[in-house]
Structure formats: C-alpha cells, structure tokens
Amino acid sequence: MAKPVPSPAPGWVIACGDFLFKYRNYLFPAIFVVLVATAGRESWTSEPVDNALDIAGVVVAALGQALRALVIGLAYIKRGGLNKKVYASDLVTTGIFASCRNPLYVGNAMILAGLMLICNTPWAYLIAGGFFVFAYWCIVRTEETFLLKKFGEEYVEYCRNVNRWVPDLGRIVEATRTMSFNWRRVVMKDYSTIVTWVLGAIALETYEEALRGAGLTQGLVIGFAVQVGFVLCCSATVRWLKKSGRLTETA
Asked: Would 9 disulfide with which of 87, 104, 141, 246, CB 3.0-4.6 Å?
C-alpha cells in the first residue's frame, strides 16, 4: 500500500527546523538537564516497578543505539548538513533507509525514551518527551521539504514505498542479509553518541539513588567514578585510534 507523500512544510516549521537542526547537538544535553531537574526524591511508582523501569530503560536505549549502528554500518548518510543547514547531495534509499525514512531519529527517540524510563517522573515524560517530539517533527519536516524540492519525483516515489517512522522489519532483515556491515564506521562515527547517553544513564541513576537513599555515600561515589572512568577511557582510546590512523573505515 502506498504511503502518504509529505507536502512542503509551512514557513514557521522550516524556521524552527533550521534553528533546531543547527543547534541539535545541544538538544540532548538540554533534555538531560530537564531529566535531572525533574527527578524526584520519591518515586511515583513502587520501588520494584521503578527498578524494572530502570532495566527497561537501559534495554530500550541500547536497542535505539543498535538501530543507529545498523543504519551507519550498512548505508551511512551524512547528517551534518552544509553550513549547519539541512542538506543532502544524494538520496540514500538503501540499507535501513529502505526500511524507514528516518531511522537515525527513531534510534534517538528510543535512546531518549530509555532515559525517560530511568528517570520515571511525569514531568520528564511531559517536558522532555514533548520537546523532543516537537523538535524532531520540525527538523524532519524541514528535511522532507528540502528533499522534495531537490529530488522531486524520485523522492516522492521513495516516500510512497517507505514508512516515515516505523521500520519494516522484513526489509531490515533483507538489508542485513545482503549488505556488508562496516563496524569500523560505526565506532568512528557514533562513539560520541554512545558515550553521551551511557554517561547520562549512569549519572541519572546515581543521582536518583543519592536522592532516594542516604545521599552521596562513599560507595556510590566510587561506583560512579569507576563507571564514568571506564566509559571515558574507552572514548579516549577510540579517539586516539582515529587520530593516529590506526582506526579507519577500511581494514
């Protein structure tokens, strides 16, 4: 069945999308600040439920990261734009992009959803979730308008055959079966994303434990330091391998 084809976005949506696209790298830290600010001393659910949601949050975030890894490892698309504005030189329709038109953003949404589950407060769901939905809706509509103008009927046909948000699992399986996976590119291009959300999850969980327990105990501080130190060491190692030329996209 043919999928809906997007129409050009209104001017105010494009203005918001351009602004948010330009500063999107600051969105994640800003949302994390909201999560920390809304974390309460008392959970609004029972302790067993809260603990289960912490585990579920890590799993959901990890699945979001796995989706990002598949996207980048199979058919990478440069999302940096040009001069901090939405831009694309080619229309990428292979790999996970044959399954979903915005798989990287879906992965981001899953990572954020995981952190919100860890936070587990109504304000986190409302404020952080609401802002994220609005921001990425504006960015995606701005990108769609650009692609529609640049690629015309080619993009229209692509939209008719591929979901905007929900990945087609059958096409994902087909892509992983028929395409080679470049794990080196995943590590090089996405290690900063992994480090960011993992550090966020560690900090958020530690902060919640301190609020709802006996404060920043020595054991809690040591545990936090060990986890953060390990993640930063891994990040520094990848960065050194890249800078030294020991890690490249090709073997």
From this structure: 141
